[in-house]
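Hey, I was hoping to borrow your eyes for a little while. A protein chain has come my way and I'm curious about its shape. Take your time with it, there's no hurry, and the full record follows here:
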Amino acid sequence: MKWKLVADSGATISPDLFAGTDVAFELVPLMINIGTQVYVDDANLDMATFVKDMQDSKEASSTACPSPQAYANAFEGAENVICFTLSSGLSGSYNSAQLGRNMALEENPLANIYIFDCLSAGTENDLLIAKGLELVESGLDFDQVVASLKDYHQKTDVVFILESVDNLVKAGRVNRLVGGMIGLLGIRLIGVRTPEGKIEIGTKSKGSKRAVKATVEEMLKHGYQGGKVAISHSDNPEVVEAVSALLREHYPQAQIEVVDFNGLCTFYAHYHGLIIGFEKA
């Protein structure tokens, strides 16, 4: 096998994207701990049960990144491997993948393996993976693909609409005082990522309509000019449609794809949350 793209479950991209290509894809799942129950964030995760257990649980919850060995196993069997991970500012997955790379190269020193820190989560990661596939299929060599991906990463971004940040607060990703305001009186948090890959507050809005308007304004402020948009969500089609409609008022030809959250995105962005990855100018 010549090429393989690997991702942790910080991405929500469908393996179907790789059907009919000569590029392999492998997901390395994170683990989600809710009380004493451990969930593997892969295609076998029962999302309905997971969401119910997450909402009902009063016990401590956490996530665990894949082990270096899990990454090393995923890197086997290909000459060229690019692995896309959750932001190193949010998770240890990037560092674990780097250790896995070292292990894999001990076994196969001639392999090309690059660990790509997406500095993000969810659908911005999906855009990067899709671009990686496009670049590989264009016939570029390994170094050219990596360099082109780095250039493309300068032209992608992400925003979040969050109705609850309970698990982000517990994980120390969001200030506890700020987190306590979210969800009260219908307040929504519009989150953005920093250049270092951390989450910060863009704006706070009361009610869904104002949150949708504030989200699109945030995207425009960050350079969106009609490029690709990838939206993931947890059972919130009404807000997805509202965001899509408002984007198309500005850019009628906008390419918008919609997917459901996986376990990790549901855990951190919570029920009814949205993650919107987009291309910018």
